[in-house]
Amino acid sequence: MSTTYKKRMQRKKEYIDSRIDEANIDTGIIVLLTGNGKGKSSSAMGMICRALGYDMKVGLVRFLKGEQQTGEDLFLDNHSNIFSAHMESGFTWNTQDQELDKKRAMETWLEAKKFLSDSKISVVVLDEITYMINYNYLDEAEILNTLSNRPENQHVVITGRAASKGLIDASDTVSEVEDVKHAFRANIRAQKGIDL
Ligand code: ATP
Ligand code: MG
């Protein structure tokens, strides 16, 4: 190993160690997963597994839940630390009843608000809520206000395409998942264990 390489790595380690020492704050954060690529909701489910591993309580709220049950619904819904609320609706283009969708969105949001005021719930997942704001089914200002008044140590994971600027600004960690390729475009239907 060359000495310059060793020195470079040493400096890098020192820098990383100092950054790790500086990051000494513990607080609830908002993680936003947006973009057109696959991996947003399943990433949220991954964080749920992490939280459950530490015996934390999780509120799982799914807006725009499709008719098809997912593997995680089957696996997680009966878990004693999961508190869930699902919007009883398919996609808008299936139901084609805007008023009904709006009413159901509101009902589901009221359930979400309960979780967002309960300090015993450590992580709240708001799956596909971005669409509720973009379709004007829910009021962005009310959502942002509820998020900023949630218990201090509560984490929130938000998923959905085309997140509004308000949601991005309110979030601490934001990832945009890019759609580089998707198997569906090669006529491969949604696969159990991967897509649902
Ligand atoms: P996942 O739940 O797999 O993490 P996601 O939450 O990122 O996906 P959504 O927009 O919520 O993506 O769509 C959910 C479903 O649509 C999943 O079955 C997913 O595989 C599929 N999907 C996601 N992105 C694409 C895409 N770019 N093209 C086709 N199908 C997609
Ligand atoms: Mg999703």
Helix and strand layout, with pairings?
Layout: H1 3-22, E1 30-34, H2 40-53, E2 57-62, H3 71-76, E3 82-86, H4 92-95, H5 98-115, E4 121-127, H6 129-134, H7 140-148, E5 155-159, H8 165-170, E6 173-176
Parallel strand pairs: 1-5, 1-6, 2-3, 2-4, 4-5
The protein binds adenosine-5'-triphosphate (ATP) and magnesium ion.
Keywords: ATP-binding, Cobalamin biosynthesis, Cytoplasm, Nucleotide-binding, Porphyrin biosynthesis, Transferase
Function: Required for both de novo synthesis of the corrin ring for the assimilation of exogenous corrinoids. Participates in the adenosylation of a variety of incomplete and complete corrinoids.
GO biological process, one term: cobalamin biosynthetic process
Structural class of the helix and strand makeup?
alpha/beta
Provide mean pLDDT, rounded.
93
Shape: globular
In percent terms, what proportion of residues is strand?
15-25%
Strand tally: 6
Q: What assembly state would you assign to the polypeptide chains in this entry?
A: single chain
GO molecular function, one term: corrinoid adenosyltransferase activity
Protein name: Corrinoid adenosyltransferase
GO cellular component, one term: cytoplasm
Keywords: ATP-binding, Cobalamin biosynthesis, Cytoplasm, Nucleotide-binding, Porphyrin biosynthesis, Transferase
